[in-house]
Amino acid sequence: MEEKLYTIGEVSKLANISIKALRYYDKINLFKPAYVDRNTNFRYYKDSQIYRLDLIKSLKYIGTPLKDIKKVQELNTDDFFTFLIEQEKVVRNQINNLTEIEQIIANAKMGIQRQKEYPTLGEVFLSEEDESRIIRIKVGGKGPKNTLYASYSKLRHFAATTEGLRNSGYGAIFKYQPYTHIDEITYQYLFTPVLTNSQTLSHSRDTEIATIPKGTYACIRFTSLSIEDYFSNLQKLINYVAHYELTVKSDIYETLAPIHYFPNRQEEFLMEMRILVKEGS
To answer: Could you name the CATH architecture of 5-74?
Structure first.
């Protein structure tokens, strides 16, 4: 019995693959027609070879490059099984990466939503915060005067080499004490949030992973980055803690985050200071 031949248009409809793709597969010797009419140059395919398109489509679906599909077609059963095990690992890594991306987006959305719910800028408030991980680097002799606008360079360099939506910006850590002048403030660390688990494996030797603990924080937020407003808001936070006789359980965590990303508008930043506290002595 003579085997039925299909035109390229018929194969396209049968296999749900574009004619353009079939022509390309022919060009790269991935899936060639059984017969090409010398007069018309029309391509014809045998019924018995159509099943090979199922393999090509399946491998493309799981992300296998075309050059690798050509090699897979020539594998025996055992080697094909080994190949599938490796592909399974690739897909699992892709799933893990997408899960991390989903979490980054969720965290960014939650941060923006919480910004909308916070009290008026310049007023101290108490907030329950979850534990968070940070990547920090030790700094010496730096304080607000020489760090507010320019000195997060090492962290920015690290952040630029990692993936993620860095909506929560950068931060600094300094000791809690009743400061009387801004020159007394010296940062111990600069930090940036950990966005993905892979960052904990790829950070440089001069940085370290640390944790900001869960608990109740006395917080204040403001948008002006003038030295005078910076110190005025810090004093409000310190006075609030003293007035309500709160027990301080941590250093001061300071974060700086962009308010918008408009390229043609003046840059605006949101500054927050927070201290882990416990009510009562």
So the answer is: Orthogonal Bundle (1.10)
pLDDT of residue 160: 45
Tens digit of pLDDT for each residue in 27-39? 999 999 998 999 9
Residues of the chain with CATH 1.10.1660.10: 5-74
Three-state DSSP at 233 gives helix
Burial 205-239 (b: 16+ CB within 10 A, else e): eebeeeebeeebbbbbbbeebeeeebbebbebbbe
pTM of the predicted protein model: 0.65
Neighbouring C-beta atoms of residue 37, cutoff 10 Å: 10
Distance CA 281, CA 278 (A): 8
Q: CA-CA distance, 136 to 204, in Å (whole number)?
A: 10
Provide the pairing of β-strand 215-222 with 125-129. Answer: antiparallel
Query: Which region holds residue 245: left if phi is over 0, alpha if psi is between -120 and 50, else beta?
Result: left
CATH homologous superfamily, domain 118-279: Regulatory factor, effector binding domain (3.20.80.10)
57: its two tokens? 């489509």
What percentage of the chain has pLDDT greater than the value 90?
A: 43
CA-CA distances (angstroms) from residue 224 to 122, 231, 243?
A: 10, 11, 25
Residue 162: pLDDT above 50? no
Which residue, 17, 91, 19, 3, is CA-closest to 52? 17
Q: What whole-number distance in Å separates Cα of residue 53 and Cα of residue 50?
A: 6
